[in-house]
Amino acid sequence: MPTLVLVRHGQSQWNLDNKFTGWVDVPLTAQGEQEAHRAGAHLKGMKFDIAFTSVLQRAQKTLAVILQEIGQPDLTTVKDQALNERHYGALQGLNKAETAAKYGDDQVKVWRRSYDVPPPPDEKGFSESLKDTAARTLPYFDAQIVPLLKQGKNVLVAAHGNSLRSIVMHLENLTKEQVLELNLETAVPRVYELDNNLKILSVKNLV
What kind and span of H or E run contains 130? Predict the structure, then answer.
């Protein structure tokens, strides 16, 4: 029976600074690295056949630390932009508290947590809602990861809050309302035991 583990990256510098990060390639903090070591410690004893991550360093570093902890530092790893965090448009780099003071808490919550309302676009006219993020993440998940799970492979995915939320929504058949309340903590592995048809046999967070 296959196992799928989803892990959001450890604390990044802009998590610490309370900034909207999106596609900006910021590093982990020292605490973020410690969180990644903790995640790896929780996963010791598990063996993976392949790992996937985004093209952003905070996810890649989290994965590298976890693989070191579990004794699989040379595990085959696939990196793809499809697993990137959602693009926060014009909000990227802005302090969340200052943005809430300017636009109001309710508006910022809509931008952060609604399913299909994107933030204001950046100068190139780009931003993503969770729906937009799912539109790039889920086809990749279905094409690249699902076939491996159906072969009985154990897969580890280290990515970001919103790309992973879209996968969780898909796997657990969450409604738009339910996914709004879904918060994936930094570097807390979410472990799915699946049957070969990808029916969930169990799901748990390792904290």
Answer: helix 130-140
Residue 100 CB: number of other CB atoms within 10 A? 16
Virtual torsion, Cα 167, 172, 173, 174, nearest 10 deg: -80
Supply the CATH number for residue 97's domain: 3.40.50.1240
* Per-residue pLDDT reduced to its tens digit, 97-107: 999 999 999 99
Distance CA 119, CA 162 (A): 14
Which amino acid is located at 139 in the chain? P
Q: pLDDT digits over 48-76, tens only?
A: 999 999 999 999 999 999 999 999 999 99
13 falls in which pLDDT band (50, 70, 90)?
very high
Task: For residue 104, count CB atoms less than 10 angstroms from its CB and return exposed for 0-12, middle for 13-18, buried for 19 or more.
Answer: exposed
d(C-alpha 21, C-alpha 12), whole Å = 9
Question: Cα–Cα distance between 153 and 148 in angstroms, integer?
Answer: 5
Residue 19 to residue 94: CA distance in whole angstroms: 5
Domain count along the chain = 1
| 149 touches 198 (CB < 8 A) | yes
Strands 190-194, 200-205: pairing is: antiparallel
- Active site (catalytic) residues: 9, 85
Domain encompassing residue 34? 3-205
